[in-house]
Amino acid sequence: MNRRNFLKILAATTAMSSVGNSLFAKTIISEEDDYYTVDSLTKLKLDKQKDVLLDPKYHNNFYSVGKKLNLVQRHVGFGNFNILSFDEAINTARWSNKIEAFSDTELEFMEYIFYYNPSVHGFYGERTCKEISDVIKKNSIVKIPYSGHYLFKEKSLDTYNNMIKDIGNSIILTSGVRSVMKQMKLFLDKLDRTNLNLSQASISLAPPAYSFHSSGDFDIGKKGFGYDNFTERFALTEEFSKMIKLTYVDIRYTINNKDGVRYEPWHVTVV
């Protein structure tokens, strides 16, 4: 597919009509779901001077792309979707007899949501992927048994294994490597749950081109802790208490971080 230069600035509106009931089928409970305590999240919301909503001209493609990505994930499987590239997702939809091919306007929407500048709605994180067609090299990753997730070999894998050794087998990998398409699906899902509010979605999930999961970071949790692994309550666990004492572990999104992201005590910095 020919790549085009898309707008780097977000066309925004501060008002929108009701979008009705969600059209995204929730086929799996996955990482970054909407379970969190309110302290840091409320502060971040108050710091936003004006919420930025997805321009209504993108609404139809937003919903149709979301539906197709759900079908693609179902087709390839949750684990495989974690590392699926943009081109692989496009080809999966094109050649599956159960999924319609992505239209030109849907492809343009996906490229738009990848290339726009999220600082216009208060997200100031570092861009980690330059092109929407960036690929996760299969020989650079390893699948972690019983998790459905992958880690990059060497530093990420070594860090995780050392954490298990030093903290204990009570910790689990809750999210590892994420391709551009994985992060895009998570971000669109988050937008769906925030009524297409880009400002609110980016508080708890990085836009597709800005996730450090594409280059080494990963999330950990406490076995049996469920949804609370993605809340500030994780910081009250014995596992977290042990983790922050490890000299080789840093937390990416600390309290009052400069990126405009909620506090994520479970998000381990690797790069």
Helix content range of the residues, please?
25-40%
Oligomer, anyone? single chain
The SSE order reads: EHEHHHHEEHEHHEHEE
Q: What's the number of helices? A: 9
- The CATH architecture can be named as 2-Layer Sandwich
The CATH topology corresponds to Muramoyl-pentapeptide Carboxypeptidase, domain 2
SSE layout:
Layout lengths: L11 E2 L25 H9 L5 E2 L4 H18 L1 H4 L4 H10 L8 H12 L25 E4 L4 E4 L2 H13 L3 E5 L4 H14 L4 H7 L13 E5 L15 H6 L6 E4 L10 E6 L2
Antiparallel strand pairs: 1-2, 3-4, 5-6, 6-8, 7-8
Describe the protein in words.
The protein has a single domain (36-126, 135-269), classed as 2-Layer Sandwich (Muramoyl-pentapeptide Carboxypeptidase, domain 2). The protein has nine helices and eight strands. Strand 3 and strand 4 (149-152) form a beta hairpin. Helix 7 packs across helix 8 (198-204). By secondary structure, the chain is α+β, with helices and mostly antiparallel strands. 41% of the residues are buried. The chain is globular, with a radius of gyration of 18 Å.
